[in-house]
Amino acid sequence: MITCYLRYVIDPDKTREFEHYGKLWLPLVAKFGGTHHGYFMPSEGANNIALALFSFPSFAAYEDYRTRSFQDAECQAAFAYAKETRCIVSYERSFFRPVFPGGH
Description:
Elements: E1 2-10, H1 15-31, E2 35-40, E3 49-56, H2 59-69, H3 73-85, E4 88-96
Helix pairs in contact: 1-3
């Protein structure tokens, strides 16, 4: 299993728009075989940092999701919404291997 960690720098005046963007992606990751662990919005501390975590069974499955998402109308609409609202300033993507009780 591979977990994608996304760290977003968002426009603090557009948190509502970014939250909407996140809600668009929750079912889309599942549509392509992943498990979304949620978006995490600023609360205390920095007002312009948000996070997202989602997992796929393998890095190959994640790459398939990425390829297919660029051909999917709903995914393209979500990308367009973020661009249109300019709620995301920048982001960085990292990958992790989760450790669970009794797992490998």
